[in-house]
Model the fold of this input.
Amino acid sequence: MWDISMKRIFAYSLIILASSFILGAISACKPRLRLPEDSSLGGNAQWLIISSQYCQMKNDPTNSSQNLAILRKGTVLRIIESKYSTSESDRGTLWFRIQEAGQTGWVPALEVNTYSSENQARNAALRME
Done:
């Protein structure tokens, strides 16, 4: 017959086994993040400021793309389009399509601050100086 201590050991063992199974099942689940690949702006950001000292404007929305220009910190630009990179090296990076000096290119969201109005962007750029 089972005494009380054996029943406790058995109950604790079942709890540990069940917990291990549940934690294993949870950790095996991989999140499936689906990024939009359309040209719409998510939200109301329509202007940006270059926030890094220097930012490379790229031909396409990927780090391996050709450099078109170097933009300086505090430059205010209108956002034409936004897109997530599908390149293997920087997959999921958000890029903004902008126009500078008649040339259209892409800058990564990691190197800019976004604003809903030109006035907000220009005021923020003044504070950067």
About this structure: Residues 47-128 form a domain with the SH3 type barrels. fold (CATH 2.30.30.40).
